Amino acid sequence: MPTISVAMIVKNEAADLAQCLDTVKDWVDEIIIVDSGSTDNTQEIAEQYGAKFYSHPDWPGFGKQRQRAQQYVTCDYVLWLDADERVTPKLRESIQQAVQQDTPNTVYDIPRVSEVFGREIRHSGWYPDYVVRLYRTNYAGYNDSLVHEKVVYPENTKVQKLTGDLEHFTYKSIHHYLVKSAGYAKAWA
Q1: Total domains present in the chain
Q2: What is the pLDDT of residues 138-185, one digit of tens each?
Q3: CB-based contacts of 36, cutoff 8 Å, min separation 6
Q4: Terminal CA-CA length for the chain
Q5: CATH value at residue 56
Q6: Exposure of 155 by Cβ count < 10 A (0-12 exposed, 13-18 middle, 19+ buried)?
Q7: What letter does residue 11 receive in the DSSP assignment?
Q8: Are 85 and 24 spatial neighbours (Cβ–Cβ below 8 Å)?
């Protein structure tokens, strides 16, 4: 059976990291975390889960940081997660089936449901927010974009939709929303 890695890029994710890793710790073969200069206990939490932890504080942007992380992946497949995301049991089953089937020239679209201020948004174009997050490590990878990076893959690729949700706890409060939005705006500028 092909192997699977979880890969993450993080910075100061101590508040969310354990909850994310709890959803994958028992069924993935490795966890790769590339940190961009955390000052909280992100590293200690990652190490409690047996993650391979690498520090790259010279922030080149989201796309290039993901490229760095992918270089550390040693498994056949890579599943990308953010610390504020959780894999549901149904999604786990769908991912495991896809990896077991090992279909050539395929990347996998995962339905993501976002929770904003404590409420899931399943309307207004927010759901299902399909994101390509699973693929063969040697087949695809992220582009160089500073923000809103995307997975790039060969033209003849099949994009297969998985079932089950990736829960995304995107904004915890108005303050969190404003800080996060300002950060993205600054990066775009």
Answers
A1: 1
A2: 999 999 999 889 999 999 999 999 999 999 987 564 444 455 555 555
A3: 9, 10, 11, 55, 56, 57, 59, 65
A4: 45
A5: 3.90.550.10
A6: exposed
A7: S
A8: no
